[in-house]
Amino acid sequence: MPKEPVPIMEDVLMCPGDNKVNCFFKPFVPNTFVVREGSTLFVIDTGAGKSMKEMLQKAVNQLRGDAKKLVLINTHTHIDHVGNNKSIMSLEGFDEKHHLMHEAGEKTLGDPYSYLLNVFRETDRYYDVFEGPPPPWRFFTRLMSIGSRQTNLDKLVGSVLKKYDPVESSPETGEFLKRDDMGLIKIGSGNVEELRMSSDVVSIDLGPRTLKGWTIDEAVIWAEESHSPDHIMILFPGKKLLISGDLTIDLFPTLPNHPKSELAIKNMSTIKDLATEEIITTLADSHHNGVCEGMNSINTFIQGIIDRHKSFRDTLISCFDGESEGETGETINDLYRKLRKKRFDNRAVDFHLEQQFPVTPAFLKSIICTILLEMGCSVEGSGKKARFLKP
């Protein structure tokens, strides 16, 4: 049965994506959102594939009413978030249409092939990327590695992108939010009521919060920039709704050329603060079913992601104790094998192993690699012989 748009609150619909699929065979499609604010209709991401296109158009028709302005915002330009952009920007009947994204995503939007190829090339510097998936999927990628390295990397990228066809990212309509135009945006009153032990309620004035980004009509576009250089989140202050995109994905940081887990944790901690101060009361993201409602739900969800990441990172570093005899440092494969032995003694390690490809597109070996680079590990050698030295 085809999926239907799901109401989150008045004038907000979520189009559920395909988040728990076998990514070897099917595209990993995020949730998308349609939000009505006065005479402006916002569409947040467009996903990929025919079923998402139809569901998103249905959501637009349900909420558009007499809206005069259409604003499409891509939280970032990874292929799973932009595949149906053209279908939205082709909608008629609006006096004004805008297609917004962070300026750092301009090249990715126009040339997803080169972007993904560069990601795999960078990853392949630190371990054999064809050894990335866990068994049994590794058997198939090993077959793909026979022959010319460059040719096989091209084929690997092509096989990933093919699952998302047709991709209509509409680069010709893109309007790029410039870092030079970014400002500090004040949100909230800054007043927090605290219940003291004496049972007196005391109002504490912390001053308004500030977020780095841009504004358009009733939306605040938060320049998040940790998941990818172009990653943004969208806050609707009047609705107390935050759409956090891929910041709250369970496995991070994903890109060896963009190791930003500390920034991710900082931004997630800010979300907790916003929830505590009731600046937001509803949190939705790209790759989880449903939404979080209320401070306790939001903070428990966010803290769980942070705690699992920190526990996994600490366990990863412990794997350097007792390095392989006669060798200096550890390869990514060495560390992966050591982590597998620890999975039943550590919930975070078990969670990461269970959530990796093919449940999500990310190879856990890439997460391991990126964490080590961020922590300042030096690297000797390259490819499958690359050895990471504990900082």
Q: H/E element string?
A: EEEEHEHHEHHHHEEEEEEEEHEEHHHHEE
Structural class: alpha+beta
Strand order of the largest sheet: 1-2-3-4-5-6-7
| Helix-residue proportion | 25-40%
List keywords for this structure.
391 residues, alpha+beta, seven-stranded mixed sheet, 21% strand
Structure characterization notes:
By secondary structure, the chain is α+β, with helices and mostly antiparallel strands. It has twelve helices and 18 strands. The strands form four sheets. The protein has a seven-stranded mixed sheet with strand order 1-2-3-4-5-6-7. It has a seven-stranded mixed sheet with strand order 8-11-12-13-14-15-16, covered by helices on one side. α8 runs antiparallel to α9 (295-318), α9 crosses α11 and α10 (332-342) packs across α12. The radius of gyration is 22 Å and the shape is globular. The termini are far apart. The model is unreliable at 191-199 and 201-205 (pLDDT under 50).
Q: Which helices and strands appear, and what pairs or packs with what?
A:
Blueprint: E1 6-9, E2 12-15, E3 32-37, E4 40-44, H1 50-63, E5 69-73, H2 79-82, H3 85-89, E6 96-102, H4 106-110, H5 112-124, H6 137-144, H7 149-162, E7 175-177, E8 183-187, E9 191-195, E10 201-205, E11 209-216, E12 219-223, E13 232-236, E14 241-243, H8 261-276, E15 282-284, E16 292-293, H9 295-318, H10 332-342, H11 347-355, H12 364-374, E17 378-380, E18 387-389
Parallel strand pairs: 4-5, 5-6, 6-7, 14-15
Antiparallel strand pairs: 1-2, 2-3, 3-4, 8-11, 9-10, 11-12, 12-13, 13-14, 15-16, 17-18
Helix pairs in contact: 5-7, 8-9, 9-11, 10-12
